[in-house]
Amino acid sequence: MSKELIIQISGLSYRYEKEYVLEDINLSVQKGSFLGIVGPNGSGKSTLLKLILGLLKTQQGEIKLFNEEISRFKEWERIGFVSQKANSFNTGFPATVYEVVKSGLTKKIGLFHHFKKEDQQTILEAVDSVGLLPFLKRNIGELSGGQQQRVFIARSLVSKPELLILDEPTVGVDAQNVRSFYDMLGDLNKRLGITLMLVTHDIGTITDKVTHVACLNKHLHFHGNTHEFEEQNKNGLAAFYGYDLHLLTHEHAHGHEHGGR
Ligand code: ADP
């Protein structure tokens, strides 16, 4: 029996100006999967996420979310998104972990909602899921980049999303904490059953966490499960794709990024 599809993209092309930045993308995401999207800078990863999140309007091709054509889709609380910018949080901001996570509830129930007892439980569960219960009353500005990123993930979890989309979530995470960060994401996927989709530079080190990989560079060069990805990779996919997968470690990606900006 085939699994429920959370995202179905067919024949998707997009351009800001004359040149296409995405061309004929076909991609499906099954419920319960954990998809890692890789691609060099400027390969269209953010554009693809923005189209899926309805932040850009489709021009050619189709996107379906939970079997509904995106222009008719209304149940946005089923989708959580944590942007890359979340972890460049102003460290002087006077809010506790609890308060920041609580603010995520307004997405689901509106600004003038009366706080209920279950809400308190929901907040504590979300904070616990990202491993930050001991930091509940701490000011977010005192936390490390990786911990702040966990706070923003918890904030999106309070609306109990079925799909969570993350744009390079480990950019602000210290190299030694990247592994435990991915353990936490793997736990959200496995234990809570949340479908995950993330843009990452760490794919070479997390093939045990993701279930599927998509390699994007304007076109979708590869999409398949982790096993197929590793097989393809042995056959020189990375070389074809323009870089050596073994260099795609966290340290490399980040050294690269900082050097490039
Ligand atoms: P990635 O996330 O993989 O780095 P992007 O989706 O941000 O790639 O960008 C893909 C291409 O689209 C790049 O060439 C980029 O310069 C271009 N681009 C992105 N945003 C805009 C925009 N608002 N206007 C014009 N071009 C854009």
Automatic annotation (TrEMBL):
The lineage of its organism: Bacteria, Bacillati, Bacillota, Bacilli, Bacillales. Keywords: ATP-binding, Nucleotide-binding, Transport. Residues 7-243 form the ABC transporter domain. It comes from the Bacteria. GO terms for molecular function: ATP binding. InterPro entries: AAA+_ATPase, ABC_transporter-like_ATP-bd, ABC_transporter-like_CS, Metal_Ion_Import_ABC, P-loop_NTPase. This is Metal ABC transporter ATP-binding protein. Pfam families: ABC_tran. CDD domains: ABC_Metallic_Cations. Belongs to the ABC transporter superfamily.
